[in-house]
From TrEMBL:
It comes from the Bacteria. It comes from [Bacillus] enclensis. PROSITE patterns: DEGV (PS51482). This is EDD domain protein, DegV family. SUPFAM superfamilies: DAK1/DegV-like.
Amino acid sequence: MKTAIVTDSTAYIPKELRESLNIHMIPLSVILGGESYREEIDITAGEFYEEVTNQDKLPTTSQPPVGEFVELFEKLSRDYDAVISVHLSSGISGTYQGAVQAGEMVDGIKVYPYDSEISCMIQGFYALEGAKLAREGKGAEEIVRLLDEMKETVQAYFMVDDLAHLQRGGRLSQAQAIIGSLLQVKPLLHFVDKVIVPFEKIRTRKKALKRVEGLLEDAVKDGGSYQASIIHANREEEAIEWMKELAEKYPNVEFNVSYFGPVIGTHLGEGSMGMGWAKRLAE
């Protein structure tokens, strides 16, 4: 069985890496200044953060039309028997459900929609691992089983500078946003049951990042092989410096730096920073 791997743009996997592993991408869109832009195609993260400062209104986002999924799946059906379609958490977007609907509409290929229950490069881990397994000739059902196995080890925490973005976008309750603003805290957030919820309230950015490092340390102390991604919203230098510090302390973890692109950045706001990790699948 030949299996294709699809993900959406919120995985923020670099184009060169997607192409080298033959990962297909469906873009979400950001609506900025009355114009709609497909992220990773029409607008880069850098362009987004530069442009958003010139806007009076906050941007909005939209999921891919079901028809785009149908078109891609039909195209893949010419060369593949199955497709695993990995998407951002169904608790914050209807993108996964779009893949489900499209899968039911397409003949000639078995579609396995996969809810990463998270987003950004941590979502990307599933697509990357899936692509490597597909190259090894593993079947779709075995790949899904192995991704579920990896999911048991996935953790991610992120800090936002301003809770207003999450509250306005409906990704965090108004009460939680007000509490955070009144206390002037840097709340750590994470995904629980597919939605974003507070993890801890911490007073400063420095302490928040230190707390995330402590959580990483606890997770990787078994000495296993891990991958981790430091994710930033227009704070690349800070992210690179943090990665260098962590790489020296945790030799069993392979780090990379990624970013909150336009769609996720719309909801988190500039200055956000986070890290996620997963244990590598046994060779």
